[in-house]
Specification:
With about 180 residues, the chain is mostly helical. Helix content is about 70%, strand content about 5%. The chain has 5 helices and 2 strands. It has a two-stranded antiparallel sheet. Strand 1 and strand 2 form a beta hairpin.
Length: about 180
């Protein structure tokens, strides 16, 4: 058995004296020394130059506890969503029952249908009296027919100096008026 590892471990260096170890000596329980991590450069405490099992166990335990907390939060969120859905369904059912009761008591649906029918008849009467649909359709067709000519005239006007000044003044007026904002 070589004494070199024992001498180095005890800090005796090249001494030839024998190292007496206590029966309870354990290399993992020795005083930790700081070693820089090769990948991150951060100092890490280690009892030997190798892997620290205690630190790994603490890290694994903390990760497991955070995972368990996340799962618990997810479970609580799912329960809250389920309860919220149940409350919504109960509210919807109660609103439907109240509507049915009020409808049977005050005949709301038939009165609403009658009012909608009267409004439709009034709109048709106004349309027949003034010919609004016909006039609107004619105006839309006239605009569609005349638009290409107006577009051409506007393009020609904006190419001239007075046209550019007019467009600039119009934009300034539009931006400065409260109607734009």
């Amino acid at each position: 058995m070589s004494l070199a590892p024992a001498r180095l471990c005890s800090g005796l260096g090249a001494s030839t004296s024998k190292v007496k170890q206590s029966p309870t000596f354990h290399p993992l329980l020795a005083k930790p020394r700081s070693i820089a991590c090769a990948s991150s450069g951060r100092p890490s405490t280690s009892t030997s130059g190798s892997f620290d099992f205690d630190e790994a166990a603490r890290t694994a335990k903390s990760k497991w506890e955070s995972f368990a907390r996340e799962q618990e939060l997810e479970k609580k969120a799912n329960q809250a969503m389920k309860k919220g859905g149940e409350v919504f369904e109960q509210a919807k059912d109660k609103a439907r029952r109240v509507y049915v009761r009020l409808d049977s008591e005050y005949d709301i649906s038939s009165k609403t249908a009658k009012a909608a029918k009267k409004a439709g008849e009034a709109a048709r009467d106004i349309d027949q009296q003034y010919g609004l649909r016909r006039r609107f359709r004619a105006a839309r067709e006239d605009l569609a027919r005349k638009w290409p000519g107006w577009q051409k005239q506007l393009d020609e006007f904006t190419q001239t100096t007075p046209g550019k000044i007019t467009v600039f003044a119009g934009l300034c007026l539009l931006i400065s008026t409260p109607l734009f904002w």
